[in-house]
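Before relying on records like the one below, remember that each one covers exactly one chain. Contacts with other chains, cofactors or solvent are not represented anywhere in the record.
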Amino acid sequence: MKYTKLPISIQDQISKLKQRGLSFADEQKAAHYLSNISFYRLRAYTYPFQDNNDASHPFIKKISFEDIICLYVFDRQLRLLLFNAIEKIEIAFRTQIIYQYAMVHGSHWHLNMSLYNNGSLFADHISSLQKEIDRSKETFITHYTTTYTDPKEHPAWMSLEVSSMGLLSKIFSNLKDDACKDAVTRHFGLKDVDTLENWMRCFSLIRNVCAHHSRVWNRRMTQLKLPKKPINIFLDNRNVLPYKVYTYISCMQYILNTISPGHHFKNNLLQLMQNCPLLQEKEMGFPNNWQQDKFWKTT
């Protein structure tokens, strides 16, 4: 089928939305928003409130353009909150992998194929890592390259420092289960290595969503594994959707409680959720009375 839709002016965008049943308190202000936030981007926020089986996409709930903008702003604030949390988690994850393995296996342990489960994946990951090193403009990378010739490769604390979180999580998942991997896992308050592997892979995916300013609020994400026997306090109510943002938030909170006890993530979340528009807690997987769970009450 050939795509035949034509671009439309901002005023026509407003007219189309009005025809579909969206109300406007101030069309001039709405035009300003639409000149800075594309009609197509906002479509992701209007979609749940429309009949999308109907070609004209009428709104099935009384809602205003201003309501949609509030939801858009809320989602942006949520992204920033999650991105800040993931930064702390990523840095701690990177630090622990480098430290635990280097103390046992030396400076270039990451190049030791015997430490990995799958040789083919190992080769792919090291090749990807080298590309990231080659792209890096970090001074310490250049200094090593121009100063040392044996070994030619950079040590783990340089190489893995410039690795993406996604690649780092893949490298970690391919490492054999041993005392080093257990030590990394327990540092984050977990007993099951496969749970940490899953969490870091999932966190790397949502990190990319946040970094590219994409929608988080009602996104269906990769399923998180809930810890079977967490070392520290975790959710009483485990009847949650593992692919919704609430579960991601809960797992981030758990790790932050372990690595950064004085963090403000929980308080910032509670404050943000007070202003959650359009009763959208359910769309994010928040259960009823979630704030009464002892996990969220614990300081």
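The chain has a mean pLDDT of 95.
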